[in-house]
Amino acid sequence: MNEQDKLLKARDRFIDSMAKNMSLYGITHSVGRLYGLLYFSEKPMTLDEMKDELGMSKTSMSTAVRQLQELNMVEKVWKKGERKDLYQAADDWYESFSALFSTSWRTGISLNISTINRSLKELRALVENPETSDEVKTSAVLDIEKYQYALDYYDWLNRFVDSLESKEIFDHIPKKE
Amino acid sequence: MNEQDKLLKARDRFIDSMAKNMSLYGITHSVGRLYGLLYFSEKPMTLDEMKDELGMSKTSMSTAVRQLQELNMVEKVWKKGERKDLYQAADDWYESFSALFSTSWRTGISLNISTINRSLKELRALVENPETSDEVKTSAVLDIEKYQYALDYYDWLNRFVDSLESKEIFDHIPKKE
DNA sequence: TAGTTCGTAAAGTTTTAACTGTACAAATTA
DNA sequence: TAATTTGTACAGTTAAAACTTTACGAACTA
Questions:
Q1: pLDDT at residue A83 in the model
Q2: Does pTM surpass 0.70?
Q3: Of A159, A32, A138, which is closest to residue A89 (Cα–Cα)?
Q4: In this structure, which of A4, A73, A146, B22 has its CB flanked by the most CB atoms within 10 Å?
Q5: CA of B99 to nearest chain A CA: how many angstroms apart?
């Protein structure tokens, strides 16, 4: 094996490991590999270059790249005289980490919160209604406690995401040891 | 609709919302629903009760419950005179949150770190080898920087997980507002 | 204007994951 | 000991996701 091959093999090994890891965050192995390819590429790449490099269809590259763009892990680059779209890997992984979670979590959290509030409102009406049987009332009171607990939790989660978005998290867990 | 139904409908609505949310963490909608069922259940449940309640197979309940146990979101309960296994929802969501991420992330992180270290070692040998061409050498030097960056990032991630596991995170982002 | 090239939508195929039914080992009961 | 019950492994099926091929509009080129 020549020296160049050694370098490429080392890259490949790491890219694969990284892609496996990303599947924990809901990123496909293939999409993860594409990110790795772009991360090590010295120049921005076109869809055709990606498809040749990874041996996949151009359509897959197109959708994968869009996915990575939505996660702020890849950005489009403009180059004069170049007709094709060029893409490069975003190099701030801490930023990507924050963005990944804020983006995907925020919506879910607020949906959950409004669902809880709606249910809470209904249950409180139930408890205050004199026609409600005692049996149902005690159940309702128990449920209200559980909703309240959940509400507190989602509030915490929201503040957690806040600290990611605001980079405050890096005050508590600094980047360099 | 009677009062009891209102209560159940409110539960159902929230459970569904919660289960959808959980899919972001890699938990299936069905498994999420099972957790919700157990969360609101006033008593620990058997596999048969779960399957009747959710209209699914007993096998599915068995695997789902095991999954939730591995995530420390559900625990087996012993009750005298009861032949069947009983399960109840773990009620500390902050604990579950921490456990979920520590468990699933730790392995991946350390795998990545050792992969990087292996690649770094090889590349350094490459750079120090007088037979390596200058072209490959410059590529290797660039790659080494990228590996180093990744290494720093995974170190940060490790410390992040540390602060989840040690509950230190709650010093920075307190549970109650 | 007609002919290319590029990116992506849409439909079709393949692969993977979720779920079910059957079967069986272990524990329990008679 | 034989007969039940309980939980789960395993194989098979169904549902979902990933990926490819085809096709086409938009932008560029001659």
A1: 87
A2: yes
A3: A32
A4: A73
A5: 14
